[in-house]
Design brief:
The chain is an all-alpha fold and 93 residues long. The protein has 2 helices and no strands. The chain has a domain of 63 residues: Helix Hairpins, CATH 1.10.287. Helix content is 87%, strand content 0%. It is rod-shaped.
């Protein structure tokens, strides 16, 4: 359906679900990567290993920020869809 104004709340909720799913994938990367970084630390000693571990922690912060932002976008989209549905329902009564 082509819109000229407003939104399609059903489609917006679908997009919000997809964002939430993708943010979960980011969390999997964090979890799996952290596990692998731990394995590396157990089997790799020295400055390079320490630099890698530090870099990984920086990456984790960035990944978590991206995950959180995607979840925020998803929540906002659902909230906007709810408001749109409420506004549309109020005008059609």
């Amino acid at each position: 359906m082509a819109l000229t104004d407003g939104m399609d709340p059903v489609r917006i909720r679908e997009v919000a679900r997809q964002l939430t799913t993708e943010s979960g994938k980011i969390e999997e990367v964090v979890t799996n990567g952290t596990t692998q970084a731990g394995t590396l630390a157990e089997n790799w000693i020295g400055n390079d290993s320490e630099q890698f571990a530090s870099s990984w922690q920086d990456a984790v912060k960035s990944l978590q920020a991206a995950r959180d932002l995607m979840n925020d976008y998803a929540r906002t989209a659902v909230q906007q869809a709810d408001e749109q549905k409420g506004a549309s329902g109020a005008t059609s009564d």
